[in-house]
Structures are given as C-alpha cells and as structure tokens.
Amino acid sequence: MGLMLGSAGCFSNLIVYLIQEFNMKSVDAPLYHISNVINDCTSLFPTAGTIVPDSIFGCFSVIAFSSLASQLGIILLKLTATVDSLKPSEGETPSMFQLEVLYSGLTLASIAVGGTRFTIATIGAAQFAKTKDQGVILNWFFVTTYVASVISATAIVYIQDNIGWGWGFGICVGTNAIGLAVSLAGKRYHRLMVFSQTQSSHYSYSCAKTQISKLPSSALSLSLYISLIFLNRAALKTEGDIRSDGSVAKPWRLCTVEQISLTVLQALTMDRYVGPHFQIPAGSFLIFSLLSTTIAISVADRLLSSTWTKLTSRSPTPLQHVGLGHVLNIMNMAGSALDQTGSTVVPMSALWLEAPLAIVGVGEAFHFSGQVSLYYQEFSVHLRSTTTAMVSLLIAGAIGFYMSTTVIDLVRRITGWLPDNINQGRMDNMF
C-alpha cells in the first residue's frame, strides 16, 4: 500500500503540476508528450521489470531495488517543487537543467513502478498453491492498488492543490519509505520463488533457435500450447540438449513450456464546484473510475462469480471477464461521444464526467484483472512474473499510450478538434 501510494501520488496530479509549476500549456508539446511518455513507461517498464525477477534476481530483490529507485525519484520531484532554482519563474519556460532534473525524477519513479507493479502481484499469488486462491489474491491485489490510487487522487491531490506541492510530494516520500521498510521486514515470512536458470530469457532464444526444427511424433504427448503453436518450438529436446544425467546441457537453446490525460484537461475547463465553496481538484476526477473499479472487483469476486456458477454450473473464465470489460469500454466511448455532441453550455458541470469514468472503471475491473488471471494461470510457473506484466504492455497501455501520442499529434496537425482552449474543440469527434 505504501509503495503504491508513493508512486500514485506522484503521477495522479502530474498534468496540473506541469501546467502550474513548469508553465506548460494545454495539449501542446511537451505537456501532453510528457504525460503520455510517463504513462508509456509505467506500462512498458513492468514487462521489463518482471523479466528480471523471472530470469536473474527473483521477485523480492527487484521489489527492494525498485522501491529505492522510487524513493530517489520522489525526492527529486519534491526538490523541483521546493527549490526555486529547479523550476521556472512565472511566465518563463523551463531551462534545460530544470527539465533534466524533472525528467530524472519521473524516470526513476517510472522504473520503480516497473519493478513493483506486477511483481508484487506475482509474489503474492506464489504464496498459494490452489488456482482459486491465486485468483482471489490477484483480485485483492487490484483492490489494494485502486484503494491506494483513490487515496492519492483525493487526499494527496488535495494537499498538492491547496497546501503545497512540497507537502504533497513529501507525503509520497514518507509513504514510500514506510512501504519499503515493511516489505524488507516481512521478507522472512515469504515463500520465495527461486529458479536455477534464467528461464524466461531462454524462452525467446529457444523459440528462435528451434523454429526450423521438425516436431517429433512424441511431441503430441507433451504439455504444449495449442493456440500459440510457435511457442512449442521452445520446448523441443534436440540432440545434445540433454546430458546423460538428464540435466539441461544448453539452456539458451532449450526451454520448458510454460483515457486519462484528456479527462484532466477537460476537468480544468469545466465547473468543478460542488456547492458554493468546495472545488474538486482536476486530478481527483479519476477517483470515479478508481472507485467503480474497486467496487466492481469486489462485487464480481463475491457475487457475480458465484451467481454465474449457480446458473451455469461452471465458473466464469478469465477470457469471459476480458470480453465483458472491452464491451463496456466500447459502450462508454460511444456514450461519451454522444454526451459531447451539442454541448453548448460553457463551462458545463464537471460532474458530467462521472458516469463515463465510472463505466470505464467497471470495464477495467473485468478486463484488467481477467487478463492478469488469464496470463498467470495459462503460462508456466517460470514465466509468471513476465506474463502477468504483459497485461501492462497490451492492456494497461504502453502500446495504447504510444498510439495515443501519435493520434493526438496527427489530429492537432490536420484538424481543429484539439485547440488550446479545449472548450472550442470537438471532443465528440475525438471519442
């Protein structure tokens, strides 16, 4: 929880921080690019961050190192908020040195997310032997993640907006330090996963080296992948691969089988007051998505799954969860486009963002946790950290954020849908 609070507190209000403290404007570069690249990194790094524990050091060592990197990154961000020479004066553009310090802090914090985001889930699920128990612990991992995100999107964002950025980042430093200390203290109670070979990295090499090999007739009896046929090549035992004692002679040849930024910008131009005095921070609107995800995961785990089992005599599969989640997301995008069509009241109430964000959260509860469960249960134990993090690459957004950056650039170059004043744009066309 502490590690998640530390990283989420840094990124929840990042766009507002860049606009207010580094004088970056609207969707212009470098604001939108920085935001998207950070989202890319926090989605892409978990894949690399889980190859390392699967291959070399193990989950716990990677979590400890990543937490230290996170601590350094958050400290740098706190310095940019509190030391005048590390941020531009009002109305000025940031200097190269100021940007370097900012980028260094963001990079370290992103690396930390890469090393902990799914590695924690993997080491948690590894404490249980039954598939059902593993699915439950993965669901509650996501509940904890989203609860931490809710706290960061409300309490920490409020402190950043109303008390000071230094205090906000300082709290992130403290929670991250507490999380690191608790993690280190609990090491002796963990059932650690230890691999004698760097199996996940051998896997890709094995696929390439044996791609031209012919499948022997005995391969039909192997426990191989049915859909991902090309992965079967990595499991072939060819002459010279096995020593006389049955151990692996050539391990590098043989392997066993196994919408955020725009929402914040919209909120900045809308009426965010609830009552005459209280104004919801723009960065806190993501709470509607986070809360709906947390509630939906809990309800799906305790109520929907049992109801589905009683009606069909079968448990819902992870793939069914994924499909339902994507259907909800498609419906939400269509609804958001209709909501933006013909909106003439400026500024309109920001509470109109509640329903779309809530639907996004419910959809994410199904497709995100379903995807993680699918990868964790279907692949070999040697690849569990890596495959669990693949959801971050494919679903949580690394590829999606890079594509989003490209699309935003093209739209701004070719159309007038995203002007500096987003109220004069065509968000319905964007959705």
Order of helices and strands: HHHHHHHHHHEEHHHHHH
Strand content: under 5%
Distance between the termini: 34 Å
CATH level-two architecture = Up-down Bundle
How many β-strand stretches? 2
The overall average pLDDT, rounded, is 70
Number of helices: 16
Instruction: Summarize the main sheet.
Output: 2 strands, antiparallel
CATH level 4 superfamily: MFS general substrate transporter like domains
Number of domains in the coordinates?
A: 1
Low-confidence stretches: 195-258
Q: Supply Rg.
A: 23 Å
Name the shape in a single word.
Answer: globular
What order do the strands of the largest sheet run in, or round the barrel if closed?
A: 1-2
CATH class label: Mainly Alpha
Main location: membrane
GO molecular function, one term: transmembrane transporter activity
Keywords: Membrane, Transmembrane, Transmembrane helix
Subcellular location: Membrane
